[in-house]
Amino acid sequence: MTDQPWLIAMVELSDSFRVSLAELARELRAAVVVWRPDEEPAPPAGASVLLVLAGGAEGAAIDLLAELPSAGAPVYLIGAAPDHRLAAAAVQGGARDYFALPDDLDVLRRSLEREAREAHGRAEAGRFAEAERSAVGFEAILGRSVALRQTLDQAARVASHRDVTVLIGGETGTGKELLARAIHYGGPRAPHPFVEINCAAIPANLLESELFGHERGAFTGAIAAKPGLFELAHGGTLFLDEIGAMPLELQPKLLRALESRTIRRVGGQQGRPVDVRVIGATHLDLAAAATRGEFREDLYYRLNVVALTLPPLRERDGDVELLAETFLARIATGYGLPVPSLVAELRAALRAYAWPGNVRELRNAIERALVLSPRGTLRAEELIPAPARTSGRGGRSPLPFPATIDVLVRAAAHAMLELAAGNKSEAARRLGISRPRLQRLLDGQPD
Predict the structure, then answer these.
(1) Predicted TM-score of the model (pTM)
(2) Phi then psi for 255, rounded to 5 degrees?
(3) CA distance 119 to 323
(4) Which residue, of 170, 175, 345, 420, has the greatest Cβ tally within 10 A?
(5) According to the per-residue pLDDT averaged within each range, which of 223-227, 303-307, 370-374 is highest?
(6) In this structure, which topology does domain 405-442 adopt according to CATH?
(7) Which conformational region is residue 264 in: left (phi greater than 0), alpha (psi within -120 to 50 degrees), or beta?
């Protein structure tokens, strides 16, 4: 049991069982407040559970249930008559259950113990949500530029609407996941789970099971039933990162889940209701992908209820230096290093570089430069990648020229793959194309 007190409101229509119920409340470490309908205008606010004491006044209690403003707290009717018709009328009138004392005292105790655990769980979830709101809420997204603040203002308005589907666009590294978390923890679903999945990182043959779950024996290796991420996110938010990489054959099932708010596990026969807000994110132009037949048009429109676009760092005036100073302080402190100053030369270098990897690239660059520079300093040659320092200043282009468009496109794909250290998903993100399309270009197939 929790050591923190929780509140039981006793609604007295009769003083029967008052002593035994007070003793039970002490066992459960519950605070107790008594309300008498004939003396006070309304029951106390903030009760975890309401007990209607009605020994000998059961009929009046049934009439009172319809008028009882419980504010969402469960109501239990306590009487003396072990009558199943009375119990049915109580439940029909809005009570969670009916107990006839003294015979049902142990059953009542177990029910209140369960209510105490659930109240404690809700309180813990609320505290966690508040902590997360401070850590990853809108205030945690750094930047003062007009372009960023416009997007954040729109997102804050969306957050308050618990069921609105959101599609976040933006280049890789702009902070799409951070914005999705801010929307979740800034809204009414905050006490419930935030569940994320990168659709580009899961093999196509496993993604359906990850999202919707599977029943035992649904496929080889399915030795037990497993809930999917939709079920795990029930009540909260499911964040589908890189949704543009979702296989076409799976997209109708996602569309059906969004429209019907039910899912069916792989190998299952019955639908399961889910209460989930879906937030998708992509670096791709999904409208163009739908036109090319690479993404279902109906799913695109269902996801695109509210579209938010995070601007790239190069379009966020003044934010590069603000972010760099923040990262410098955090990372240097974490490594136990002195925090170096951003001198004029470094500020100019930060502003001159385009930051194709955006905030993620900037943070990594700061960390790398701190580690490689002499203690207490930050060298520009460590901060900005060498190819960026030489581009446009006599550096040799990796692309063949003159050449046909097809040859140039294939060469660009190979060059980007090299820059991404062989990571095809990252290369596709930087090019703004799907991973399958990148593979076709690398293989020399017609695009």
Answers:
(1) 0.66
(2) -60, -45
(3) 40
(4) 175
(5) 303-307
(6) Arc Repressor Mutant, subunit A (1.10.10)
(7) beta
Residue 299 is predicted with a pLDDT of 97
d(CA 214, CA 350): 49
Query: With respect to CATH, is domain 313-390 assigned 1.10.10.60?
Result: no
Antiparallel, parallel or unpaired: β 213-214 and 194-198:
unpaired
**Phi, psi torsion values for 320, nearest 5 degrees:** -60, -45
| Token code pair at residue 392 | 């446009």
The yes-or-no verdict on residue 386 having pLDDT over 50 is yes
pLDDT band at 132 (very low <50, low <70, confident <90, very high): low
Confirm or reject CATH 3.90.1300.10 for domain 142-309, answering yes or no: no
Q: Same topology for domains 6-124 and 142-309, yes or no?
A: yes
- Output the CA–CA distances (angstroms, integers) from residue 192 to 130, 159, 227, 262, in the order listed: 12, 14, 17, 18
For residue range 4-51, list pLDDT tens digits in order.
Answer: 558 888 888 888 888 888 889 888 888 888 888 776 656 566 788 889
